[in-house]
Design a protein that fits this description.
The chain is mostly helical and 144 residues long. It is 62% helix and 8% strand. It is elongated, with a radius of gyration of 22 Å. Keywords: DNA-binding, Transcription, Transcription regulation.
Length: 144
């Protein structure tokens, strides 16, 4: 006797989190998990949506506050911020950060590598400007 089992296709890792964040970003104000569930594609259980929101909160991608007897949720990070968080988490789990970063950078397509170099230059210039401003503020405090 052959039995047939109905299996649903597994979602890609992080797909539901991205969908929840996308739904939250369409809201003008903090919203309930039920509101998020109503805007999600598919037929997710309310508890699944709450679990996803709790995971996003643990990742500092959303915040919640009590409103009445339940919570309302607000996005903190957009999809890019969540992806960056995941990248940092993977990097933090590795023993040899330098090797991981070197492997990552050398595997980038030329355009992405150029973009990364430009972003690092801008970040460094911003830090230099902050240091100059801090030094100037210190000089001003010392005079008088």
């Amino acid at each position: 006797m052959t039995t047939s089992r109905h299996r649903t296709a597994r979602r890609a890792q992080g797909e539901l989190e991205a969908q929840v964040l996308a739904a939250l970003r369409t809201a003008d104000t903090p919203v309930s998990a039920g509101w998020v569930r109503d805007r999600m594609d598919g037929d997710l259980a309310y508890t699944t949506v709450v679990t996803i929101l709790a995971r996003l909160q643990a990742k500092d991608a959303v915040t919640r506050r009590r409103e009445g007897r339940s919570f309302v949720w607000t996005p903190v990070a957009d999809e890019a911020g969540l992806a960056a968080f995941k990248m940092r988490k993977v990097l933090d789990a590795e023993a040899d950060r330098e090797a991981v970063l070197a492997s990552f950078v050398t595997s980038l397509p030329e355009g992405d590598e150029r973009l990364l170099r430009d972003l690092l230059r801008r970040a460094e210039a911003g830090m230099d400007a902050d240091s100059d401003a801090d030094a100037a503020a210190g000089d001003e405090e010392g005079t008088g």
